[in-house]
Amino acid sequence: MLAEIEQVQQNAQLLHTEADVEAAIDKMAVHINRTLAHKNPLILCVMNGGVVTAGKLMTKFNFPLTLDAINVTRYGQQTSGSQINWLQKPASSLQDRTILIIDDILDEGLTLQAIYQYCQAQGASAIYSAVLVDKQLDKAKPISADFVGLSVINRYLYGYGMDYKGYLRNAAGIYACATNKQKT
Description:
single chain; alpha/beta; 6-stranded mixed beta sheet
């Protein structure tokens, strides 16, 4: 597996440098601070991909908040998948709370849509979403994010929380795999 990971790294294309990504996170934080300043939000970090974006954003928020996690996946340790698997639901009550869902990428939108619907069903009073990357597809998505860091081409990506088969989440930048394996 490590040989495959090294091959992916060697052939990847850097789309956004660490400085680009950090600037995008700064801009997102400004917009989120304006919107959620007096709403006492519950931050739902979508594991595992959203951990980097959530951690970086939270240090820039200037309002009281609480944090919880949710783990919903369509991919597992693969590069594609279709069935939504609920691995962890939040321990916190969502009833009458303003929720900010933070994730790494808005791909086809199915996972974010499922989380949004879950929050609605749990009685959230308002639901917002923030994604580091919005992938540009040739088809409509069932949901859009309220706060977006970067828009990217439709390629298989890794870095800043996004993974390739469970690896490379820690890459300092956003990379496109040369093999162009799509998440489907």
